[in-house]
Write a structure and sequence with these properties.
This protein has helices at residues 16-40, 44-54, 58-74, 77-80, 85-92, 94-109, 111-114, 117-149, 222-242, 254-270, and strands at residues 152-160, 163-169, 183-186, 198-201. The protein is mainly α. The chain has three domains: 13-109, no CATH class; 152-201, no CATH class; 222-270, no CATH class. The strands form two sheets. The protein has a two-stranded antiparallel sheet with strand order 1-2. The protein has a two-stranded antiparallel sheet with strand order 3-4. Helix 1 (16-40) crosses helix 2 (44-54), helix 1 packs antiparallel against helix 3 and helix 9 (222-242) crosses helix 10 (254-270).
Length: 273
């Protein structure tokens, strides 16, 4: 797989690999049956039935080919425009099922594997290696990263009508080496959204806020000094947790909280964050 759509999409560029692969598989099926029919001096239709029903695991491989053709059709641009991303993404996962269903017939009918145990061992090993990489990068590493980085939504800001920015924070973010322009599939762990991933482009990989120091808080009167002494560590903690100026107002200190948030927003903007 090349990303989410490399092998299964049919647009121009590298995505045409999927189109070529499916056409080659169709040609493999048709030409193999045709060759058997010529060798057996029988009709192609009769030979097709013989191959499907008599050769081991060929029927499941044919079903697998049908799945790949289906994935290719729904990945065409005309079809993609009519499908929700989640629907298309779910359908393309059938590619894995197709690969699994088509595997057995290669070993059962391929002369290079039937008569050569070493070839058979190497071919199975390559499949197991691919399976291991798939499990590692699709399941193990994402789960490990989720537990280590604890990504969470810090705030959701409507930048303009129809334009929303989602600010995400977490732990050890520098290890991700994220850069603006990178593409991510985000899965939000809500009751309705945990099962589907959404594509997002990273607009800015902001540097992490490690400390917030207010250069001046009101201490001119005893009450002001008391409020400032109480709210300063609270606002600092919230700012570090949110990694933005989207912090809650401290009850009883609305003016100080708002001024703190405005100053913090100005400082973050000046720092390019």
């Amino acid at each position: 797989m090349t990303g989410s759509s490399g092998w299964t999409a049919w647009p121009s560029g590298t995505g045409r690999n999927g189109e070529y692969a499916i056409w080659l598989l169709v040609a493999h099926t048709v030409l193999t049956i045709w060759g058997y029919a010529v060798a057996d001096h029988t009709a192609v239709v009769h030979e097709t039935g013989t191959v499907l029903l008599s050769y081991p695991d060929v029927l499941t491989a044919t079903f697998a080919l049908g799945l790949l053709i289906m994935v290719g059709i729904v990945s065409a641009r005309a079809a993609r425009r009519r499908l929700r991303f989640e629907t298309w993404y779910f359908i393309h996962l059938y590619t894995y099922l197709a690969i699994a269903l088509s595997f057995a017939h290669q070993l059962a009918t391929g002369n290079d594997f039937i008569t050569h145990p070493l070839n058979r061992f190497l071919w199975v090993s390559l499949y197991l290696l691919c399976l291991g990489l798939l499990v590692a990068y699709r399941a193990v590493i994402p789960v490990r990263n989720a537990l280590r980085h604890r990504l969470r939504v810090a705030s959701v800001v409507e930048e303009a009508p129809g334009v929303v920015s989602i600010y995400v924070t977490g732990r050890h973010l520098e290890e991700l080496r994220a850069e603006a322009g990178q593409f991510f599939l985000w899965r939000f762990l809500t009751p309705k959204g945990w099962w589907q991933a959404h594509p997002f482009s990273l607009s800015a990989a902001g540097r992490r806020v490690t400390d917030v120091q207010a250069p001046q808080l009101p201490y001119d009167r005893p009450r002001s000094a008391s409020i400032s002494q109480y709210v300063a560590p609270v606002l600092r903690s919230e700012a570090l947790a949110a990694q933005s100026a989207q912090i809650d107002t401290v009850p009883g200190a609305t003016y100080t909280s708002d001024a703190y948030a405005q100053s913090l927003q100005a400082a973050l903007a000046q720092a390019g964050m």
